[in-house]
Design a protein that fits this description.
single chain; two-stranded antiparallel sheet; 68% helix; elongated; PGG_dom; membrane; transmembrane; transmembrane helix
């Protein structure tokens, strides 16, 4: 699990020492303890974002695995839509976590270009998600309208009729 690994070894890794007092024995302005994230001390906002999206990705992935292994109502359309939305959350959380980590492990002189690139990629990702989401909303609306009788139900073709049509064309 990538999200688990990212949580245990965040971008910029973790402090290897305790630093509470300076060489003169005076308390330091920003102390740290071994095992705590360096990114959490230096890039507080980015670390906060990282800690929102990384657990989202991790828990969504685990939820999908659990739902698929449970075998509950897999052939039901609404159940599959629920799983699909959870999968979107997992993938989106993982993508955003990746970009946050990428920005924070890069050299300072590449931050401007990297920020621009990741901003464009995130916008493209969100646009793709919007297209897929809207497509599914349309599918849901058509399904509801058919169920309530506002639209004609699909006519199912029988395989025997299909075979006869194919033979007549030849």
């Amino acid at each position: 699990m990538v999200a688990f690994q990212a949580a245990t070894m965040p971008p910029g890794v973790v402090w290897q020492d305790n630093y509470k007092v300076n060489a003169n024995g005076n308390p330091v302005k920003e102390p740290h303890m071994a095992g705590t994230s360096i990114m959490a001390h230096i890039q507080r906002i980015a670390y906060g974002q990282f800690m929102i999206f990384n657990p989202l990705a991790s828990l969504s992935s685990i939820s999908i695995i659990l739902l698929l292994l449970s075998g509950l109502l897999i052939k039901r359309r609404r159940w599959m839509w629920t799983q699909m939305v959870i999968m979107w959350l997992a993938i989106t959380g993982q993508a955003i976590t990746y970009f946050i980590a990428l920005r924070n492990i890069s050299l300072a002189d590449t931050w401007g270009m990297l920020k621009d690139l990741t901003d464009v990629l995130v916008v493209c990702w969100l646009c793709l998600m919007e297209v897929v989401f809207m497509g599914n909303v349309v599918r849901l609306c058509v399904w509801v309208l058919r169920k309530w009788g506002y639209l004609k139900k699909k006519e199912k073709k029988h395989s025997d009729e299909d075979d006869e049509d194919k033979h007549e064309e030849v």
